[in-house]
Amino acid sequence: MSLRICILETDVLRPELVGQYQGYGKMFEQLFARQPIAAEFSVYNVMNGDYPADDMQFDAYLVTGSKADSFGTDPWIETLKTYLLQRYERGDKLLGVCFGHQLLALLLGGKSERSTQGWGVGAHRYTLEHQAPWMCPAVEELTLLISHQDQVTRLPENATVVASSEFCPIAAFHINDQVLCFQGHPEFVHDYSRALLDARQDRLGEQVYQSGIASLAEEHHGATVAEWMMRFVAHKPEADRAS
User: Fold this and answer.
1) Is residue 242's pLDDT more than 50?
2) Burial (0-12, 13-18, 19+ Cβ within 10 Å), 110
3) What is the CATH number of the domain that holds 162?
């Protein structure tokens, strides 16, 4: 039986990239299609006010990345926060990536803000700070493609750091068996990261841009994180299995 995942899309791509990549929802669908756990996906662009019908049931809700600030006050962000808090209080599983990672941290009592570290771009390595049953296949360290200038700077209560680096100390976290978030983009591919770097070259400055371009020679663990996410969604705590 397939897992049912609701993808809450929180951005639209740059016009010149839509033809090749379509949107973050489609990029996640392509990513998850390559991992071994059967899942089907429904994509809703919440920037445009698109949400699932009240009677639809999902095994998890995934919040994508966005150009917007997680601490912004745009009406669509406020609507999304209300929706996610309702899902959380109902006990639904929530997944967050980049903007989604920051928004869920903020919503659940942590803090997200513009980072004093500046832009993070290209491929970035993290130390794994925690092991859990759903982190299979195991890796010694985690590399993900990134593009962000905001960070989670305080964890929500009861949250556990999964991955960190000197540049980004709270790069991934989970809250029990209900919330799992990553700052990095498992759905990105190298060509998309390169396109973002080229588009932002002037904003990034030459040193950050060149460093980001050079880092794209590294492989990344996007497929591994996709599998972790689906195993997290499928995972049942011992108490649930015993009942």
Assistant:
1) no
2) buried
3) 3.40.50.880
